[in-house]
Amino acid sequence: MDYRFFKGRPFFKGMSLICLLALGLAGCDTMGSAYQPNVGPSQTPAVVAQVQKGDAQAALAARQRPQILARYGGEYKDAKTERLVARIEGALTAADENPQQSFRITILNSPTINAFAFPGGYLYVTRGLLGLATDASELAAVLGHEMAHVTQNHGVQREQRAETEEIAGQVVAQLLPDDRVAGLAALARGKMRLAAFSREQEIQADEIGIRTIGEAGFDPYAAADFLTTMQDYNDFLTGGSSSTKAVDFLADHPSTPQRVALARQRAGVFGPQGKVGERGRDYYLSGIDGLLYGPSLSDGLMRGNTMLLPEIGVQFSFPQGFSAENNGGVVQAGGPQDSAIRFDSIADDDIGSLSDYMSSGWVTGLDKASVHAATIRGLDGAVASAAAGKWFFDIFVVRANGHILRFIVATDKRQALEPIATPLRDSVRKMTDSEIRGAKPLRIRIVTAVAGDSAETLAAKMDGVSSPVDIFKIINGLSETDSFQPGQRFKIISSR
Q: Residue 97, exposed/middle/buried by CB under 10 A (0-12, 13-18, 19+)?
C-alpha cells in the first residue's frame, strides 16, 4: 500500500531523521486555536507521483525505503485496508496546518505496534498498529502526530541500537557475529529506537496533531484513548512490568496518566468528550476485517508454546516455563534462571554436511570437538556446544524441506543446558498433512453482538491467543463497565 497526499503548493524542506511514533504527551500548554468547521474524511484523497522532488533529504528517505520494507516484512497488500488508510490520511492532509507538505504512506506487513516517518513525508504504519486501533479517529491520532513531526522539521539523527542488556541480545552478539543476523535479531526484539524528541518538540507535535484530527472531523479525544489502549496492551504483554516496553514506540515514549490527562485537556478545546468529532468505528472495522494478526504463515505460527512451520512441514515446542516471542520468523524465548532459546531458519543453498556447516564459522566460541552428526526425529541434523563469556550454549541444526533450522540454547550454568536442550530436540517432528492444512494464520474478524452477548461469549469465538477475554477487551477498547447492545460490532481474533 503506497499512497501520496499533496495540496498543491511548494514543498517544505528540512527534516533530517527517521522519527519513532511519539504519541506520548508532555507539558501543559493549551491549544492555540479554537475549533473550526471540519472538512470530513475524504473519500477521494489526492494522490501525486513524487514526494518533495529535488529535496536531498527526501531523496535520502526514498533510498532508505527498501531497507525499511525489508526490516518490516514488506508492504501489506489488502485493497480495502489500503483504501481505509488513504481515506483517513487524505482527511488529515486536507486539514494539516502546513499546506506545503506532501505525504506518502505505506502499510508495513509487520505484527509489531509501530508507526514512524522519514524526511520528505514518508509515513509508515504497521498492520499490528491497525489491528490494535479501535476506530478511524485513533489511527488518525497516530498519523496526525507523525505528520506534525514532519511538517515542523523536528529532531536530530540518531543511530539505531540493539538491546544488548537482554539475554537474547547477548546470545546473538556472542554467537552470531554476522551483521545481517544480528540486525534481524535486534529488530526482532521490537526495540528499534529511531529518534528522540525534545520536550518542546513533543509539546508542539502533540498540540498540532490533536488540533489536526479535530479540524479534520475526527474525535480529538482519540489520542488519549489510544494511549490508554497501547499501555493496556503493553501491560498485558509484560505482566504489568513498568520497566518493560513491549509496544515498540512506548519504549521511548511511555504512556503515563499525566500524558493521557494532557491529551484530554488539549482535546477539550473542541468541546466535551462524546460531543465532538467522528469516531469512524463502523467503516474502520469494515476496512480491517480480515487483517492479518500476528506472524504470517511464512514466519511460522505460535500456538501456545508450540511453533508450527507449515511451509517447511516441521513443528517443535519450547520447554515448560519458557515464554516465546515470534518476530519475523526469529523466535526468542526466555526461561527460568537466566536461560534463553533462539530459533531461526535459513535456506539450504547446497550447504552440504551439517557437521561441516556447524564448523564453518557462524558460531563464535564453538567447541569443534563437540560437533557431531545426529538424526533428530528422523531428520538429518548436527549438534555442538559452545562457550562465550559467562554463557554456555547448546546448538543444534536440522535439515527439512530446503531449509536449515537453527536452535541455540543459552544458560550461565553448563549443567543447566541438557534439561532444556534435550526436550527441545525431542519435540522436533514432521507435521502431518492434516496438521499442515489446518495451520492457518490469525486474522482480525468482525462479529455482530446479539442479545445476551458479553465479553466472555464473544471472546469464546476466538482461537490461537492466550487470555482471550483480556485480549478481546483490549483490542476493542472496552472497560469493565461497558455494556453490550445487539447490533454492535466487535473485533475478534481467529484462524477461521
A: middle
